Amino acid sequence: MEIFTLGEGSYSVDSTKKFIPFNPETDDRKSRPGSLFIHVNPFLIKTADDLILFDSGLGYKDTRDELYLHQHIRNAGFEPEDVTLVLMSHLHYDHSGGLVVERGGSLQPSFLQAEHVVQRGEWEFALSGKSSSYHIEIFEALQNSVKLTLTEGDGTFKPGITYQLSGGHCQYHQVFLIEDGGQKVFFGGDELPEPEQLLRRFIAKYDYDGRKAMELREEYGKQAAADGWRCLFYHSKGTTVGTVTFDGEHFAIQSA
Q1: How confident is the model at residue 14, as a pLDDT?
Q2: What are 124-169's pLDDT values in tens digits?
Q3: Euclidean distance between the first and the last CA atom of the chain, given in angstroms as a whole number
Q4: Which of 41, 141, 156, 197 has the fewest beta carbons closer than 10 A?
């Protein structure tokens, strides 16, 4: 497998749920009180059969009115039209914004030819408009335009691709394990968003079920160490692709 990190940079987000670009070298954290600071890293994986996008970032554009996400895919040596699968951990805006692109005043699918895979409960909740973490117009633009596969619970999507309803970060969050050519890659979305969350045990207020999310991080970390998974860390500010070791008490992460 080939793995490409499609980094979209750093952002601050406050109670308004707006994501504002943040340059750690020039911007002052104190000027954005009450904000969380995050890094956004969609991933592209080339397997023997597919070109897979894991989550789609914020969907911001460059000065040429092109999605950063599309340009990063081109920089990796592919075209956006080459993507065959879009595997979504969940649909919060910082993970789903790049599913669409604005053209001529309307939203159009960014990956029209690709099959989009989402948990059914997550899709239905996103369309309900009950949370500002979801931008309903994205999903309205997709629902009759792309091939949409709604998973339920745990299962095998196709040989080499399995999914699990995790439900820690949000109620219908899912994680993926890809096996190809003897290699295993794990995408934990916001259940395992950065290496640091393996190194210290804590309950996060931003998770739907903080205790479950904490326990899942430890479970996935131990499985990764035992089975030699490469883990994709969507919100990492440093190591975005890493392997995990566990000595019985502590985790360690090595860039892979």
Answers
A1: 84
A2: 999 999 999 999 999 999 998 999 999 999 999 999 999 999 999 9
A3: 12
A4: 156
Q: Which of 152, 148, 40 is nearest to 98 (CA)?
A: 40
Token digits for 227?
């089975």
* For range 198-213, the mean pLDDT: 93
Contact 100, 142 (CB under 8 A): yes
- Check whether 205 has a pLDDT greater than 90: no
Residue 63 has pLDDT above 90, yes or no: no
Token digits of residue 232: 């994709």
- Whether the pLDDT of residue 216 is over 90: the answer is yes
Contact in structure between 164 and 191 (CB atoms under 8 Å): no
The model's pLDDT over 10-40, given as tens digits with 9 standing for 90+, comes to: 998 888 888 888 888 888 888 888 888 899 9
Q: Which two tokens stand for residue 179?
A: 């096996």
In angstroms, the Cα distances linking 195 to 180, 183, 208, 245 are 23, 20, 20, 12
Nearest to 97 by CA among 150, 42, 168, 173: 42
Using alpha carbons, select from 149, 160, 90, 158 the residue that is nearest to residue 117: 149
At residue 211, the pLDDT reads 96
